[in-house]
Design goal:
Chain B: It holds the Pfam family PadR. Chain B: Residues 15-87 form the Transcription regulator PadR N-terminal domain. Chain B: InterPro entries: Metal_resp_DNA-bind_regulator (IPR052509), Tscrpt_reg_PadR_N (IPR005149), WH-like_DNA-bd_sf (IPR036388), WH_DNA-bd_sf (IPR036390). The structure holds 2 protein chains of 2 kinds. Chain A is mainly alpha-helical. Chain A has helices spanning 8-18, 24-44, 51-55, 58-69, 89-108, 119-132, 140-143, 146-155, 162-172, 174-193, 197-219, 224-257; strands at 271-272, 278-279, 282-283, 314-315, 319-323, 326-330, 362-363. Chain A has 3 domains: 8-69, no CATH class; 89-249, no CATH class; 266-365, no CATH class. Chain A contains 12 helices and 7 strands. In chain A, the strands form 3 sheets. In chain A, strands 5-6-7 form a 3-stranded antiparallel sheet, with no helix packed on it. Chain A has a two-stranded antiparallel sheet with strand order 1-2. Chain A has a two-stranded antiparallel sheet with strand order 3-4. The longest helix of chain A is centred in the middle third of the chain and has 34 residues, at 224-257. Chain B has a 3-stranded antiparallel sheet. In chain B, helix 1 (3-21) packs across helix 4 and helix 2 crosses helix 3. By secondary structure, chain B is an alpha+beta fold. Chain B is elongated, with a radius of gyration of 16 Å. The chains are: A mainly alpha, B alpha+beta.
């Protein structure tokens, strides 16, 4: 391969090709080291010097690196996955982690109402981690699963592309996210504190451990069984806090716009004296001498005739009686209160208002 | 005698020793090994050794963004690595004194 006078990119491409039988995660890690190395070396090169003169051809570099790293020679392919079994422990553990993370996200959105729901993903996580805990911090078997390799390839775009820059930028935000996550979890714990002391303790512990879990997971992938669900829980709690806040805002604005006055209204007032005799033409005043007016209801008789001027605070008020399309204001009979006290005289108590001869009828028409 | 053959057996120890003093990224480790007198050490061998020690759980790594060029991955020795280095040093010292003894006999 003629790589003379070609730049860093070409050299790196050659290296990547010479390593492409290795697990993508491992290739990605190597290339992370090597691209920094080659980039730094290229700035030190003399006028007519090439990378190949300094480092040898990329294939040779790759070969030397493989030997030192203890990888198998190029011809051998690393076993990607145990093909004879579809459901292996690493695969079950990986999917357990993914499902538990998803469940935590959903549970997180309900965790403030019912913290015990977190037991479900918790059990899932413990079980799935137990499957692979003995497989070491790199969890190479999980990294070698075809589905993991797919994700790795997807997350490892070509150097220099916008996608790669975006991912690098997002990666640089990770420590900030760890702090935000701890903050959100802490907030969740505080919100639980008054209602569920056990839930408070659990979520507070998760918040504290999550600060360390982020960096630890970089070194020991087993910490992902804590770190990923912790992130999901934080996001779930965020959703719920936003939801609750929005509801509270909506509730308080409803309260402001619809005050419910709890004042009773009266259509009419009937007065009895100490002997149980119904009184008529009683005028009521309050402590300030203002007339006490029940709700007016007899302005329906809007004939052209002048209505008799009845003070609004004179009780009982005339009732409206509609007859043959015309309306009369009828002085209420003594039958008006539906629950007449037993002491009331029978002679004046039971007759319906319509049958009572209008004593002071003022025909409106 | 070709020191590169000798180096193969002890590069692990040399890299761990260099990292015990201070964390370093790949090329930095190469330079420190050369500055320490291992002039024949190959870049690729050092990078491969770093990967192997890392995969064996003796090193941890973290990324430091660089203003010019790709970010640098720093390696630091952890407790497992320190234990391994201490063991290696014991082995090396006894091996070296044994060999010294043999060479003394030859010289005598």
């Amino acid at each position: 391969m003629n790589t003379q006078a070609l730049g860093v990119e070409y050299y790196l491409a050659g290296m990547r090709a010479a390593l492409d039988d290795l697990p993508p995660s491992e290739v990605a890690e190597i290339m992370e080291d090597v691209s920094a190395h080659v980039a730094e070396l290229s700035t030190e090169l003399g006028e007519d010097e090439t990378l190949e003169q300094r480092l040898g051809p990329p294939e040779q570099y790759a070969h030397e690196l493989r030997q030192a790293a203890g990888y198998p020679p190029r011809t051998e392919r690393l076993p990607v996955t145990t093909k004879n079994k579809l459901v292996t422990r690493p695969r079950a553990a990986a999917w357990g982690l993914v499902i538990a993370t998803g469940v935590t996200l959903l549970a997180g959105a309900a965790a403030l109402r019912e913290p015990a729901i977190l037991l479900l993903p918790g059990v899932l996580l413990v079980l799935s981690l137990a499957l692979v805990h003995d497989r070491g911090p790199t969890q190479q078997e999980i990294m070698d699963l075809p589905e993991t390799r797919r994700i790795q390839q997807w997350l490892t775009p070509e150097e220099g592309t916008p996608a790669e820059r975006a991912l690098t930028y997002l990666k640089s935000l990770q420590p900030a996210w760890w702090l935000v996550r701890a903050g959100l979890l802490g907030l969740g714990a505080v919100l639980l504190a008054g209602r569920d002391i056990l839930g408070f303790l659990v979520v507070a512990a998760i918040a504290i451990i999550s600060v360390f879990a982020g960096p630890r997971a970089k070194v020991d992938r087993r910490w992902l069984w804590f770190s990923l669900p912790a992130s999901a829980l934080a996001v779930g709690l965020l959703f719920q806090v936003v939801d609750v806040t929005a509801n509270n805002l909506a509730y308080s604005s409803r309260n402001q716009s619809y005050p419910t006055p709890m004042t009773e209204t009266y259509e009419n007032i009937y007065v009895q004296d100490e002997n149980g005799k119904w009184l008529t033409n009683v005028q009521l005043y309050d402590q300030d001498g203002n007339p006490i007016n029940a709700q007016r209801q007899y302005y329906g008789c809007n004939g052209s005739d002048p209505q008799p001027m009845i003070p609004a605070n004179r009780y009982p008020r005339p009732k409206i009686d509609y007859e043959n399309g015309t309306c009369y204001t009828v002085t209420p009979s003594m039958s008006a209160p539906s629950s007449t006290p037993s002491t009331s005289p029978s002679s004046s108590g039971s007759a319906p208002s319509s049958s009572v001869p209008p004593t002071s009828v003022s025909p409106s028409k | 005698m070709d020191t590169s053959q000798l180096l193969k057996g002890v590069l692990d120890m040399a890299v761990l020793a260099v990292l015990r003093k201070d964390d370093g990224y790949g090329y930095d480790v190469v330079r420190r090994l050369r500055a320490g007198g291992l002039n024949d050490v190959g870049d690729a061998s050092v990078y491969g050794t770093l990967r192997r020690l890392y995969n064996a759980g003796m090193l941890t790594s973290y990324v430091v963004p660089s203003e010019e060029g790709p970010h640098r991955k720093y390696y630091s020795i952890n407790e497992t690595g320190r234990v391994r280095l201490a063991e290696s040093r014991e082995t090396w010292r006894s091996f070296a004194s044994t060999l010294d003894g043999l060479l003394e006999e030859v010289a005598a």
